[in-house]
Design goal:
alpha/beta, Chitobiase, domain 2, TIM Barrel, 3 domains, 8-stranded mixed β-sheet, 8-stranded parallel barrel, 26 helices, 13% strand
């Protein structure tokens, strides 16, 4: 009898351990009548089933865990949000979407209650609970980490509040470049095109974002594309996301969609194209008014057309016009004239209907003193513009999470200072009550998804039981890491890049040369990204010994120290990840993310080593010419090739893990852009690295040397 009792107790004990708690979402029927909430409820139900391997039902009050959702009062939901209520000018309202969760236990039942005033708030609240409290990680449009638990992880009473720091917050996909979704957005007949775009829109919703925009290209098939566009816009709206399209008035570069092409009957051309575009119910049009980034054009005529477009949109649609302010200063634009367009009172009132986005570039924030980009010392003029325009019109901030052309992921480098710059700017925007934050995104491989994922989550401030969450640049990288050793190693690697690449301005030696860097014509020799004081051509052909000594004694040690400083921390990061995988404390997906970090950081260190050896070779060659001695520098080029070969091995391994087909993002092929290759094509064979070796070896520096860009097509001179 005693043995029987023990066995029976053991059976009951085992059952208690493995028993799965049931979960139910409790909500009023009205939430099923709106796609924003009904789609979110259905999605969250399926995600929870994956996590708990248990019954997740709807409106079953007998379940062990109840997630109670509120009824939405239509009158409350339609009220102006805090930004719209304070605006003294036309402002497009988006429903207030803050939310809060409170947990209480009644006997053994866990009851979580959501409070929100809009359908969007309910949707964001559900996904926020999963990602911020239940261990889900929606880190990439094609990848997520789903936790697995036998007991619901939240058992202690708490009150958690999530405040959206911006009214509009989301992403612009810069599809003038051949990115992951460029083709799918421009051709609905491609296999799985709409599904791929929806996958990204779902990523936005799951990460609490409410704005989606992309560049429209002239190379679309106008006969059929509008139906594809409508399907995209409709799906955005079904998920509570604002749909916007980026196009131009008459921009000729990079196949941008133009509202008019020839000089005749411009207003008729514009109106015809607007009627065609409005077959999809766009919420915003982000319009480029210049012919090209550095060209001002006839300001009076442009302003007249802009007023016409604003008036037409106001009368014929519910679409609002936006326009970006480039980081290029007006005085640096070709064709710039000092005299401003004369506004009358009616024109001034109408112009307030349009909004603006203040754009900054690369991994620099808008207030730091040293940001040598686009012929500027820094980007503070964009900050001043932001504050000035906020007084008269709807104004958003528009920074970058990557800069594809020869700066980061085309080289390839994984530049961690994007994290500190983007968080710093978000904090600045919050301080000055900027209502919108739209991020210019240029690809997600090589760890760049971390930047977009971090920015998305930083657009919310979380407070639990009155204590605000502390925010720091590496925090969401830490979400993919476990042990303190891993996190500390990542922090050290972040500090190395911040110290050397930004604080010591080493980035000017790490980037690849652009066409304008080497063109040799002063009027066209604009500095888009940081570049050295002396060109490599000058150093190899004309530099005197004082300049050579300066480079040798200041630049070379920094390159060498930065290159060597990375590897010890990389090994710690990688070794710890595999150890945790073996011990069952990390998932394969988390280890894959950690491995992606280490690959990106390692190739950045090898980039520094490569630049060190090439620059050493150039200096060696110049000394031999000055001293009229036979050169013995070739061993340095051999070291450069070794660094490139090591980096090439990393590339080949990483290519096996790309989330989109290698063919579409890393090879030559026809596409809708001006490039006809994927955005990682130059990485596939480390083109820029090889080019730099050959330039130095042959002492041949020219924008046409080993050139992969079709400059005439990019400039819009040919198709």
């Amino acid at each position: 009898m005693k043995l029987y009792t023990l066995l029976l107790s053991a059976v009951f004990f085992c059952n208690a351990v493995v028993a799965q708690q049931s979960i139910s979402l409790i909500f009023p029927a009205s939430l099923k009548d709106t796609s924003i909430t009904s789609l979110a409820i259905k999605d969250v139900q399926q995600l929870l089933k994956q996590a708990c391997n248990c019954d997740v039902s709807l409106n079953d009050n007998s379940a062990d865990v109840l997630l109670k959702l509120p009824a939405i009062d239509k009158t409350e939901a339609s009220k102006l949000n805090r930004f719209a209520a304070d605006a003294k000018f036309p402002y497009r309202n988006y429903p207030e979407h803050n939310y809060s969760w409170s947990l209480k236990k009644e006997n053994s039942k866990v009851i979580l209650e959501l409070k929100a005033s809009s359908w969007q708030g309910v949707s964001f609240g559900l996904y926020g609970l999963l990602q911020e409290k239940l261990g889900f990680k929606f880190y990439h449009p094609r990848r997520m980490i789903v936790p697995h638990w036998t007991e619901f992880p939240l058992q202690q009473n708490f009150r958690w509040e999530a405040k959206s720091l911006f009214d509009k917050h989301g992403f612009h996909l810069h599809t003038q470049h051949p990115l992951e979704l460029t083709e799918q957005l421009h051709d609905g007949n491609l296999p799985h095109a709409l599904e791929d775009v929806k996958e990204y829109i779902d990523w936005l919703a799951r990460n609490g974002q409410n704005y989606f925009e992309f560049c429209l290209l002239e190379s679309i098939d106008r006969k059929v594309w509008h139906t594809h566009a409508k399907a995209i816009v409709d799906y955005c709206h079904s998920r509570g996301i604002i749909a916007a399209v980026d196009l131009s008035l008459h921009m000729i570069q990079q196949k941008t969609f133009q509202l008019y092409k020839g000089p005749a009957a411009k207003q008729k051309q514009v109106e015809k194209n607007l009627v065609w575009l409005m077959q999809a119910d766009w919420d915003f049009i982000n319009m480029e008014f210049s012919t090209a980034e550095f060209i001002s054009g006839n300001k009076k005529k442009k302003e007249e057309l802009r007023l016409f477009i604003i008036s037409w949109l106001k009368k014929n649609s519910n679409t609002k016009l936006m326009g970006r302010q480039h980081v290029v200063r007006h005085e640096n634009e070709a064709g710039h004239k000092r005299k401003d367009f004369e506004w009358d009172s009616a024109s001034l009132a109408l112009d307030k209907e349009r909004g603006v986005l203040s754009h900054t570039v690369m991994f620099y924030d808008m207030t730091e003193p040293n940001a040598p980009v686009y012929e500027n010392k820094n980007q503070r003029h964009q900050f001043d513009f932001l504050l000035e325009q906020m007084k008269v019109r709807e104004t958003w901030y528009y920074p970058e999470s990557a800069y594809w052309v020869t700066f980061d992921n085309s080289v390839s480098m994984f530049l961690l200072p994007y994290l500190s710059a983007r968080l710093s700017d978000i904090d600045t925007c919050v301080k000055y009550n900027v209502p919108g934050h739209i991020t210019f995104s240029s690809g997600w491989e090589w760890g760049y998804w971390l930047f977009d994922w971090s920015i998305a989550r930083w657009s919310w401030q979380h407070t639990t039981d009155g204590v605000a969450q502390k925010r720091f640049p590496e925090m969401y990288a830490h979400d993919m890491l476990h042990e303190n050793k891993e996190k500390n190693a990542f922090n050290k690697l972040f500090d190395l890049q911040q110290t050397y690449l930004k604080d010591s301005s080493l980035m000017q030696w790490m980037t690849a040369m652009t066409i304008t860097d080497e063109i040799g014509i002063k009027a066209l020799n604009d500095a888009y990204h940081p570049r050295p004081q002396w060109s490599y051509k000058f150093l190899q052909r004309k530099a005197d010994t004082s300049i050579l000594e300066k480079v040798k004694n200041t630049v070379l040690p920094n390159l060498e120290n930065f290159a060597n400083g990375n590897f010890g921390y990389i090994y710690v990061l990688k070794d710890e990840a595999y150890e945790l995988l073996e011990e069952g404390e990390a998932t394969k997906e988390e280890v894959a993310a950690s491995e992606e970090f280490t690959d990106g950081i390692a190739i950045t260190a090898l980039r520094a080593k490569h630049r060190y050896t090439i620059l050493s070779y150039i200096i060696c060659k110049r000394y031999s010419a000055i001293e009229h001695k036979k050169c013995s520098c070739d061993s340095l080029l051999t070291l450069a090739v070794s660094a490139r070969n090591a980096a090439q091995q990393i590339v080949k391994m990483r290519e096996t893990s790309y989330r989109y087909p290698l063919y579409s993002i890393a090879t030559k092929r026809w596409d809708h852009t001006s490039y006809h290759f994927g955005y990682l094509y130059a990485v596939s064979n480390l083109h820029f690295w090889k080019r730099e070796e050959e330039e130095a070896r042959k002492n041949k520096y020219s924008p046409l040397f080993m050139n992969i860009w079709n400059m005439w097509r990019i400039a819009g001179i040919i198709n």
